[in-house]
Amino acid sequence: MKEFRNSPAGFPSRRAGTAAALAALAPSLLFGSAAFLTWFNARAAWLVVPSALGAPYGPPPLRAFPIGGGPWPLFLADLLAVAVLAAAAGALTARAVRRRPRAGRVRTALSAWGAFALGTALAGVPRGAALAAVMGLGPLGWAAYAAGGAVAGVVWGAALGWVCAAATAAAHRPEPSPDR
User: Fold this and answer.
1) What are the tens digits of pLDDT across the range 165-177?
2) Which of 44, 43, 37 is nearest to 68 (CA)?
3) Per the UniProt record, which residue ranges are transmembrane (predicted)?
4) Rounded to 5 degrees, what angle do the CA atoms 91, 92, 93 make?
């Protein structure tokens, strides 16, 4: 970790983008665990209600196999969604640091938080569309479920974006301002 944190200052956007992308995988790994989901759903069962209406639950889960023998198309859509989430969080955070290399840790952390929220919204689109495809809905159903997945993704991203923000703030070292 020290080598990553103390890397040359010439690449602050790469450092912040990588930190955001790796941190975006943490909630996905957590929500991919059956033990965590059992514990979490027992304590916050009210969060499951939107998924009863078809909205994707939580950030996209990262796991090796579908839980409970679920359909493989949904599992593959979740894996695609994890890749979209990590790529979007990393790319958007790196872009924010490239545009403002002298920004402080707080501003960079808030950029990572927003990038994570947007990434979960983008990741919710294939998850919702895959659910509509498995249910055999038509194009209107695909669009409605994809939009519902995007809305659910924004909500979960806003709630869990602090993980990405904290990791990015820890890894970011702003460029020094030039002497006047």
Assistant:
1) 999 988 877 766 6
2) 37
3) 72-94, 106-125, 145-171
4) 95
Given this model, what pLDDT does residue 4 score? 52
Measured at the alpha carbon of residue 162, what is the angle toward residues 155 and 127, in degrees to the nearest 5? 40
CA distances from 170 to 26, 37, 112, 178 (A): 15, 28, 12, 23
Note whether 22 and 91 are within 8 A (CB).
no
C-alpha 40/C-alpha 45 separation (Å) is: 8
Q: Please tell me whether residue 71 adopts helix, strand or coil conformation.
A: coil
Tokens 């919204």 found at? 121
Burial (CB < 10 A; 0-12, 13-18, 19+), residue 39, is: exposed
Helix (H, G, I), strand (E, B) or coil at 47: helix
- Written as six digits, the tokens of 170 are 């820890």
> What are the pLDDT digits (tens) for 63-113?
988 877 778 899 999 999 999 999 999 999 999 988 888 788 898 999 999
Least Cα distance to 76 among 88, 60, 54 occurs for 60
